[in-house]
Amino acid sequence: MTMALTLLTWQLSYTGLSGLYLSMLVLLLSVLKAHLIGDFFMGLRTVNSFWRWAIVIWLTFATTLIATAFILAV
Amino acid sequence: MTPKRYPPGDLAIWFFILAELLVFAVFFAAYAFTRSNHIELFNTYQLTLDRNAAVINTLSLITASYFVVRAVAAIKQGQQQACSKWLLAALLMGLLFLVVKSAEYAHHYSLGINLRTNLFYMFYFSLTFFHFMHVILGMIILAAVALKTHQGHYTAALHTGVETGASYWHMVDMVWLILFPLVYVMR
Question: What's the ipTM?
Answer without folding.
Answer: 0.86
